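hiii, so i know i said id send this last week but things got crazy w the move. better late than never?? heres the sequnce for the chain we talked about at the cafe, plus the structure i predicted for it. fair warning i was half asleep when i ran it
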Amino acid sequence: MTLGPLMVDLVGLTISEKEKEILQHPLVGGVILFSRNYESPEQIAALTTEIHALRQPHLIIAVDHEGGRVQRFREGFSRLPPVGTLGQHYMQHPQQTLKQAEVTGWLMAAELRAVGVDFSFAPVLDLDYGVSEVIGDRAFHRDPQAVTKLAAAYISGMKQASMAAVGKHFPGHGAVEVDSHLGLPVDKRHLEDMWQADMLPFRQLCSHTLAGIMPAHIVYEKCDS
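okay and structure toks below
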């Protein structure tokens, strides 16, 4: 059985019989876990083992686990800082901060891989313009070159822990105020403006370090003009 295009979620800490049925549907290819699915490292390891045993090739298990505000598993896991704290130190101590970014990426990935999670939706490649509450310190920096270098180091750490990287939120979420979980943001900038700024980290990392990309849920009304 091949993996399908759909990634689905689960209701709770264990898999119900109905959910087992759904997970074996040929259109399903993965499972995304949330805080409601987590109780302890032992419990989540048992859950991922059961999910992986359902099919061959096994379903891909993912989670949003960046650190800071977005860390689904907390008790029993290292409390990861928001990556914006790395950006705060980057300009004064670039080499030291790049090493910290690498270690942070490794720690995030190693702890997840140890309990059977295949990948986290990370890193965030958005630019912090200071206007988006939903991005904010989830972004490494305002400068696209700094974001690229810090993200590359973070991804290097992830790879050392055998985890693929998924960059988000393409082509950029940092310049809009509205939280796309709550409304539909509209970015009124032209494509050429985004090409040299927001899209630069994606362009530079896509060819050799990113295994996937998560799109932003935003209307870019002038990007076709």
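btw The helical segments are 17-23, 41-52, 84-90, 94-114, 144-160, 191-195, 200-206. thought thatd interest u
miss u guys!!
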